[in-house]
Request: fold
Amino acid sequence: MIATTDADLIIVGGGLVGAALAAALADTPLSILLLEDQPAVFDPPADDWDARIYAISRASQRLLARIGAWQRLDPQRVQPVASMRIFGDDGRSQLAFSALEAGVDELAVIVENRELLRALWARLALASNVTVLAPAKPDRLAIDAHAARLTLVDGRELTARLVVGADGARSWVRGACAIAVAQHAYEQFGVVANFECAQPHRGTAHQWFFDDGVLAWLPLPGQRLSMVWSCDAARQRELLAMAPSALAETVAAAGGRRLGDLRQTGKTAAFPLQLNHVAHMVQARIALVGDAAHTVHPLAGQGVNLGFGDVAELAGILGAEAPQRCGDYLVLRRYERARREPVQLMQSVCDGLQKLFNNRNPLLKTLRNLGLGLTDQQAWLKHQLIRHAMDA
Ligand SMILES: Cc1cc2nc3c(=O)[nH]c(=O)nc-3n(C[C@H](O)[C@H](O)[C@H](O)COP(=O)(O)OP(=O)(O)OC[C@H]3O[C@@H](n4cnc5c(N)ncnc54)[C@H](O)[C@@H]3O)c2cc1C
Reply:
């Protein structure tokens, strides 16, 4: 065993999942270094809304509350989802979920990426055992029986018992450890933008399945909504090139003007969508969490919730072990085994739905619209679907 390390644990990536892992292990006996490529500045201009938003499940809310982040969110920037309406592509089929019917306070809560990051990093600032290096970028990683040695681009050398890759879908840590990843590009992009709407949304989320994509309107506080339009490259280019008034008109028309006229606020952005499936989430002295370990299509809004599930599991396992054992393969394997099934299930469900709806076959079109309508009539089935999504 080596005599000293700079830390028990180095987390590479201070996005939502990496920051949540550091916060979940705050004030434990583990010493933690959190490396983030970007400067840590999250203060929002008061009147501006982040176009990157998340539907946070009940399970993720519980985790975020437990680690001291949820209570640091500005309540004015948090929107509960009271109901959800899903529309098929035949102009008639619908599926509706409501918190009232399900006997719960809300189906999910919508929060901006930037606001969640701010709350997590505010919690980290109080942690006695977490040192933040930001901006900092790793250059080389070497692993031996005793430690992982990380050399930064600026020449600093760090050693730790465990390195966690929380560095997103194009993970540097995953590449440096040569962990194989099967990638399936959906040849789709998620186009995001925020709007003010003429009519109140009453906490309702809307989603339309078209045969060439999926449009979601997620409610934001006040008369605002956030759009995620999963579409092909040509439509993405078209949407990105539109002036704000033309985009607002196109989005309002695509959603059948359910909330009246729209007015765009802020900018339009787009992200490529792909499914990443890694061969291993762990090796000796290495663990992957969040998008570094898995990505899913955003149609079910579950990507970051899966990452928070990784955090709950890994923090539970590491917190119960002696710090000296945190990089042991057998300890890390317990994390991998626990996460394999929920991750694969969510990837299969999202991938299956994407394939079912992104298809012009007339038989499939009839079947999927029939499926929406039939599900809508099954109160018990809807109840189960809600419970599963909330606790995912
Ligand atoms: C259009 C779209 C809509 C989505 N909507 C939803 C939704 O509604 N609900 C949901 O749950 N999920 C959603 N997702 C998925 C969600 O964005 C991701 O699952 C989530 O951001 C993953 O968080 P992460 O911390 O693992 O990775 P990231 O958010 O990618 O964070 C990685 C962090 O690591 C840092 N980093 C990267 N490389 C390095 C390096 N070499 N060194 C140091 N730091 C590094 C980055 O700067 C970043 O801060 C959506 C995704 C897309 C594309």
User: Anything to note?
Assistant: The chain has a mean pLDDT of 90. The pocket of flavin-adenine dinucleotide is lined by residues 12-18, 35-38, 54-55, 137-138, 166-168, 172, 190, 192, 228, 271, 290-291, 298, 301-305, 307 (CB under 6 Å). The radius of gyration is 22 Å. The first strand starts at residue 7 and ends at 12.
